[in-house]
Amino acid sequence: MTNKYLTIHNDIVKQIEAGEIAPNSLLPSEHELKDLYGTSRETIRKALNLLAQNGYIQKVRGKGSIVIKNTKLDFPVSGLVSFNELAQKMGKKPKTIVHELSLRKPDQYIKQQLNISSKDHVWHISRVREIGGEKIILDKDYLNKKYVPHITKEICEHSIYHYLENELNLVISYAKKEIIVEDPTAEDRDLLNLEGFHNIVIIKNYVYLEDASLFQYTESRHRPDKFRFVDFARRNHM
């Protein structure tokens, strides 16, 4: 049986997402909700706390619970999708700013990530992703020149994956991902709009071709308020 507070939480979420409760409006008071749902104030507080944790409301002392406009993008953790593909799917108009495109020998860290030697060369691409005038992602891509002999700034401003798959005819197969939360670096704060934020969500991607060749390592550094990292899991019964 579903806990009462979860039932209340889900009911309010349904109303918010359907537009029945407008952004920036106040939810009824705890006392009013208690009477409405026929439950205890403690149960109502649990439901409101969960709504706040999930980004649906902001509890303001002296006012109550204010409904927040949902501006987060659902970022599929298990999927292998480009930023442009994600933004277009969500109906957002993105802008990509290329801060660096260079071909260099890898340092020790990148050698370890791509499992290459000092003799190899790597494309280093640094791009800022902007949506709605806010710079919210810093993508740092490292591509093994063995598989990507040539790339331009114009390609990086649009879609690298479109170029790799349609021009170079590479078959991108799968990726291993690691998600961590860290303090922003000086570079993060310089390139992204991070005022008031003390953490950044980093997705590390190790991307492989169909023959299991590791050709790309990426650090995608996200402002935490703009994304929900989602996945679908199915239990395998033994």
Q: N-to-C SSE series?
A: HHHEEEHEHEEHHEHEEE
Number of helices: 8
First-last Cα distance: 25 Å
Low-confidence spans: none
* Residues in helix, %: 25-40%
The proportion of strand residues reads 25-35%
CATH fold descriptor of the largest domain = Chorismate lyase
The main sheet comes to: 6 strands, antiparallel
Mean of the pLDDT scores?
Answer: 86
Shape: elongated
Summarize the structure.
Keywords: DNA-binding, Repressor, Transcription, Transcription regulation. Residues 2-70 form the HTH gntR-type domain. The protein is of the alpha+beta class.
List keywords for this structure.
Arc Repressor Mutant, subunit A, DNA-binding, DNA-binding transcription factor activity, 8 helices, 238 residues, alpha+beta, repressor, Chorismate_lyase_/UTRA_dom_sf, Chorismate lyase, DNA binding
Could you describe the 3D structure shown?
It is a single chain. A six-stranded antiparallel sheet has the order 4-5-6-9-8-7. The protein is α+β, with helices and mostly antiparallel strands. The chain starts with a helix and ends in an 8-residue tail after the last strand. α1 (about 5-15) crosses α3 and α2 packs across α3 (about 40-55). It folds into two domains: about 5-65, Orthogonal Bundle (Arc Repressor Mutant, subunit A), CATH 1.10.10.10; about 75-230, 3-Layer(aba) Sandwich (Chorismate lyase). It is elongated, with a radius of gyration of 22 Å. It has helices at about 5-15, 30-35, 40-55, 85-90, 110-115, 155, 160-165, 185-190; strands at about 55-60, 65, 75, 95-105, 120-130, 135-145, 170-180, 200-210, 215-220, 225-230. About 30% of the residues lie in helices and about 35% in strands. One of its GO terms (molecular function) is DNA-binding transcription factor activity. One of its GO terms (biological process) is negative regulation of DNA-templated transcription. Pfam families: GntR (PF00392), UTRA (PF07702). Keywords: DNA-binding, Repressor, Transcription, Transcription regulation. This is Trehalose operon repressor.
